[in-house]
Amino acid sequence: MYEPIRTKSVHTPADHADDFPHRSREEELDIQLAGHLAALLAVTDELDLGAAGDRIAEQVARLRGAPPARHAGRTDAPALALHRRAHALAGRALVVAASRADTAVAIVAAERMDAHTAAIAAATAPAAPSRLVGAL
User: Fold this and answer.
1) Four-CA torsion 68, 73, 76, 77, nearest 10 degrees
2) CB 3.0–4.6 Å: which of 13, 51, 68, 112 could bond 90 by disulfide?
3) What is the pTM of this model?
4) List of residues 6+ apart from 126 with CB closer than 8 A
């Protein structure tokens, strides 16, 4: 009554499934974490935060096995926007570091988040009202 299917199903595994390399979950997380840290390093270098950039570069080098390229160019982005971008990148790095239980990167990312939070708060805080001498 029914004719058998003569073509291969899309659900049939490929004949040569082992022809391409597979990465483990840990390797994928290492790659993702190194990418987040490299992006954070670029913004950190743009903000001219040398010591913080060096600490981030150490972690990128540890994850990639080679030192990262440092950011050479500057943009005209305002410092507040750069601090917000760096805060977001540090948060992403912190999430991935926690996922792979990398304490060293988690500490660096948390410190950077705190520093950028303080910089954002300082930049957005209202200025103290000026008082005239002798005014109540």
Assistant:
1) 0
2) 112
3) 0.78
4) none
Run of H or E including 109: helix 103-124
CA distance 123 to 111: 18
Q: At what angle do helices 25-46 and 79-99 cross, to 10 degrees?
A: 160
Q: What is the pLDDT along the chain (136 residues), one digit of tens a residue?
A: 677 767 766 666 665 556 667 888 899 999 999 999 999 999 999 999 999 999 999 999 999 999 998 866 788 899 999 999 999 999 999 999 999 999 999 999 999 999 999 999 999 988 766 666 665 5
Scan for tokens 């540090």, then name that residue.
90
Tokens of 119: 């910089």
What is the rounded end-to-end Cα distance, in angstroms, of the chain? 100
Q: Report CA dihedral (68, 74, 78, 84) to the nearest 10 degrees.
A: -10
